Amino acid sequence: MAVPRFKMKVAAVHAAPVYMDKEATTAxxxxxxxxxxxxxIKLLAFPETFIPGYPVCTTPDTFSNMRMGWPQQYFIxxxxxxxxxxxxxxYARQSVVCSPPDACVRAVQDACRAAGVTVSLGxxxxxxxxxxxxxxxxxxxxxxxxxxxxxxxxQPTLAERYVWAQGDGSTLRVWRVGVDDDDxxxxxxxxxxxxxxxxxxxxxVGVRVGEDGEQPQxxxxxxxxxxxxxxxxxxxxxxxxxxxxxxxxxxxxxIEADQHVHVGAWPALSTVRGxxxxxxxxxxxxxxxxxxxxxxxxxxxxxxxxxxxxLEWMRGNLGExxxxxxxxxxxxxxxxxxxxLAGPHTGGEDRLVAAEVDFGDLGPVKVWIDGNGHYKRPxxxxxxxxxxSLWTVPGSDPVSQGRPPGHVEE
Length: 410
Fold this sequence. Notes:
C-N_Hydrolase_sf; hydro-lyase activity; disordered C terminus; alpha/beta
């Protein structure tokens, strides 16, 4: 794919969900998308598991002297295992089904199509017809409202493994996102996006042009591979969840898929004991800016914040705790050369952290460093990603089965 050369407005969503209420949170997502569209924003990045909220319930005071004073930010560490079952079952019920898309996902699809906004939406995903959960990012394209794909977090951290299964390499990839040509801010007349890819697969699902020049007929396959013959301007979008951004191999896989925009989705860690005093914010900032430079990509870092409704749910369902307070979160938009285009924004205020990104900046940056080219030294360092899907659910999972991601089963 040629390096894109156009401008567009993007935003990281810094907001709190309606905790443990997927319908109400979905309504909030739809409202945010509508507002973004009215502001001319073309890409929105949502925090980690925004629907139905991150399980940030914490240790009660009776456990506050646990060894080493490490943070106990998950309700699964706070209580005996048998006492956790109702909360975990409730969390599963509040998780969304992405493939085939359930009513919540379809509502977001409709909102994206109506507002002309592409979203990367953090959700707790439940496998259709089952109980397995994944910490996922759903990419929904503005033009069609299609679910381009779902990334499932490869490595849940610590006690997150009580909640979510491990994702596999089949979802470690980028998606080609089309942008309307009539946008006022697309001011590069000499942009050429009709060049043929060099055969390198974007995310392991690439499609080469045949010798006879024929392209695959399915629009979904063209989109998945990055081969877009519609003449649209486009860019490659991928992302990782929270400390998954510490997996250097996962980041390099996205770099080698020719990533242009990265979404780092995070919870509100800075309100948790052990991550306060600026520790969490420093970690998130370091990982965000490091990926911007090493990937030569624009990074949208989106984090939620803890509000009173979340704290009230914890008190009502799991008892009193004195570890987590309101606020937190760290959201920003970062340039490939590490400067801030917007933010960072922290604290308990909902906000769209918005900026204009100029893809024309990618060319000059790659003169200095090209992580998917001369700077990766492929004759010395070799990268391999296992793309096999390990989580196949017959009859219910288009992401794994190869049916179009926007398909809805009757």
